[in-house]
Amino acid sequence: MESETLRAALADVVAIPVTPFAADGTVDAGAHRALLRRLLDGGVRTLTPNGNTGEFYALTPEERRALTEATVEEAGERAVVLVGVGHDVPAAVEAARHARETGAHMVMVHQPVHPYVSESGWVAYHRAIAEAVPELGVVPYVRNPALGGARLAELGAACPNVIGVKYAVPDAARFAGFARDAGLDRFVWVAGLAEPYAPSYFASGATGFTSGLVNVSPALSLEMLGALRAGDYPTAMKVWERIRRFEELRAANGNADNVTVVKEALASLGLCRRDIRPPSRELPEAERAEVAAIAAGWPL
């Protein structure tokens, strides 16, 4: 795909699909495809298999490959596919090359989980992956508040295929400075903390946002996007108010139930099982009714 097509796909609702599991604990391939089709039919045009909402770190390499392949097949010409990759450099490169061979268009590089991450090492890590797949767009996932924008500028100068950034530091002022230090117009800026942070990040230069909530209600996510694109912040904040409690439940206890709440909502709608893999947990019984009530009141 042309670079401008990929950049446009990031300036959108970047959906992070869940990975549904069957009763025996394996990936429920049928439910996964049905959920993807629901997103596509709902107007979603950018899909990210193997993201955090998809339980990336709880999946085996074989499962991640299968999810990539299924997503590319279901997307067809209807959506751009941005595949999550990560772990050690060889594993990330292998996954990125598989994404390329499968027909995906971009890769999102998960924040390195190594306990000792230097800024120069961060650049080297992403550069090794980007240089291995020059045909693909590359999107670093930035969660480290200590990383400076100048380092991203350095990476972008070395790797033209690094075209966007999923910025997930919960600090709008830091984001504004980081984006300008890195090059506001050089990259597509994606608000990586989803709808709750999208209005404030759009005000500082973001043009897209990631979403796990979109699995439940594509209509709400797209409504917020439309309002933000139009600069209609009052309407965007009305959507924000509707989703606030749902997102508060996801963010509670250090995001312990981030994926759990999304799956609980989908289960309440009969779309997949609530099963989730450790170290996450299923939602306690006392909170299930609240999630179901929220989901029942949303446009689907």
TrEMBL record:
Residues passing through the membrane, by range: none
InterPro entries: Aldolase_TIM, DapA-like
Keywords: Lyase
Pfam families: DHDPS (PF00701)
Keyword Iron: no
Gene3D superfamilies according to UniProt: Aldolase class I
Keyword Lyase appears in the UniProt entry: yes
SUPFAM superfamilies, sorted: Aldolase
Domain of life, per lineage: Bacteria
Coiled-coil stretches noted in the UniProt entry, renumbered to this chain: none
Similarity comment text for this entry: Belongs to the DapA family.
Protein name, UniProt field: Dihydrodipicolinate synthase family protein
Species of the source: Streptomyces gulbargensis
